[in-house]
Amino acid sequence: MAIIKKILSLLFLSVLFIGVVACNKDVVKENGEEKEGKPVKEENVVKIEEAEKLFNSYSTELYTIKDPSNPPTSDEIAEKAKGYLTEEQYNAEIANRKFQIPELVSKQINKSIEVQDVKLEEQSKNDDGTIDYLYTTTFKVYDENSSKMYEKKGELTLSTTNNELKIDREWSRGVKIDGLDGGL
Questions:
Q1: Whole-number average pLDDT of the chain
Q2: What CA–CA distance (Å, rounded) separates 37 from 25?
Q3: Pairing of strands 164-172, 27-30
Q4: How many Å apart are CA 41 and CA 31, to the nearest integer?
Q5: Who's near 133: CB < 8 A, 6+ residues apart?
């Protein structure tokens, strides 16, 4: 009799467990289609066009140097770029002296720099609400005698903070520019 009670108890627990698991599936809409997974908050849904617009504006503020003899200072560049970054990323970029690079590059090669295009490719939507992308930024480096295009590839993470899209992480190996010891 004790064995039958144990078997019935295990059977009951198994049915209960299966019932709880089956009824606990979250369904989320992604691009108008339902799929199983963790719910995504509506405010964290980002269109690729919005992400590209943000990153293009940031890249333009960061890298555009119209007059290499009088480029904006790193402080001026940092102030313009600050609004596109989370506070943590902004502080990391300051610590890494990233905002000094465009000014130094432009002075060293004595050429103007202009962002031509930005392309993003979504990689993943993360549990913390951030979205990872691969990016390609196309630059034109030029003076009155020559012009050359360069591509910079990297990784980007965007987050939504206070209903604002922000750059949470940006990484690249840089790009080698002719006439320059380092890279951009």
A1: 82
A2: 7
A3: unpaired
A4: 13
A5: 51, 55, 120, 121, 122, 123, 155, 156, 157, 158
CA separation for the pair 32, 29 (Å, rounded)? 6
| Helix (H) or strand (E) segment spanning residue 7 | helix 2-23
SS3 for 105?
helix
Which pLDDT score is estimated for 60? 96
Q: What is the pLDDT of residues 24-59, one digit of tens each?
A: 444 444 444 443 433 334 445 788 899 999 999 999
Full-model pTM: 0.73
Q: How confident is the model at residue 16 (pLDDT cuts 50, 70, 90)?
A: low
- 3-state DSSP call for residue 143? coil
Joined together, the tokens standing for residue 164 give: 């604002």
Instruction: Give me the residue label for tokens 């630059």.
Output: 139
Amino acid in position 111: K
Sequence-distant (≥ 6) Cβ neighbours of residue 150 within 8 angstroms: 138, 139, 141, 175, 177, 184
Residues 6 or more apart whose Cβ sits within 8 Å of residue 82:
90
Strand pairing partners for 36? 27
pLDDT higher than threshold 60 for residue 181: yes
